[in-house]
Write a structure and sequence with these properties.
The complex is a heterodimer. By secondary structure, chain A is mainly β. Chain A has strands at about 5, 10-15, 20-25, 30-35, 45-50, 55, 65-70, 75-80, 90-95, 105, 110. In chain A, strands 2, 4, 5, 6, 9, 10 and 11 form a 7-stranded mixed sheet that branches. In chain A, strands 1-3-8-7 form a 4-stranded antiparallel sheet, with no helix packed on it. The mean pLDDT of chain A is about 95. Chain B is mostly beta strands. In chain B, the strands form 2 sheets. In chain B, strands 2, 4, 5, 9, 10 and 11 form a 6-stranded mixed sheet that branches. In chain B, strands 1-3-8-7-6 form a 5-stranded antiparallel sheet, with no helix packed on it. In chain B, strand 6 (about 55-60) and strand 7 form a beta hairpin. The chains are: A mainly beta, B mainly beta. The interface of A and B includes residues 4, 50, 55 and 58 of A.
Amino acid sequence: EPEVTQTPSHQVTQMGQEVILRCVPISNHLYFYWYRQILGQKVEFLVSFYNNEISEKSEIFDDQFSVERPDGSNFTLKIRSTKLEDSAMYFCASSRRLDNEQFFGPGTRLTVL
Amino acid sequence: GESVGLHLPTLSVQEGDNSIINCAYSNSASDYFIWYKQESGKGPQFIIDIRSNMDKRQGQRVTVLLNKTVKHLSLQIAATQPGDSAVYFCAEKSGYSSASKIIFGSGTRLSIRP
């Protein structure tokens, strides 16, 4: 069964450093998403991406965040200058259509020291 | 405003019994609701969904009930098994076919007593 994959599973970084979280969505999916989950809290929407552009973003997704689909398979989330409060699980998701089920990856745990 | 919340943070159920997890929402414009299961160390996994033009939907061992009058959603799991242990999130979208973001509730941790 096809699934969303994410790398790395755990990323540790120093405050102020740039990180890139990587995702490989399901191959025939057209819509891509990033969510985050701070430990013990709810899953929060960050951004959705379709046709090589952002279609919706939350107020969490400020200028420090960017997304890119650098090739036909990868979907990345970049945090330019990490802050302590960026520590969280980051989930990538994809869907075939906008009104289809979103399939989530296993997440990347980001720890900012 | 956007708010999806859960009544209880934890629920303990005897193996074999039925589980009922409840959720309240505040946005009257919400027209699509989803239940997700999240096991430890994994991402949310879709369980079942329901659109606002329905009040009940059944899947395999799971049933979702929607009461739009009181803005209440519930997930019923029949004959709860150890593998059902997880955190369960209700979630909603406003604009089923046009909105992309899913708004998650806080989660209920379901534990199973042997």
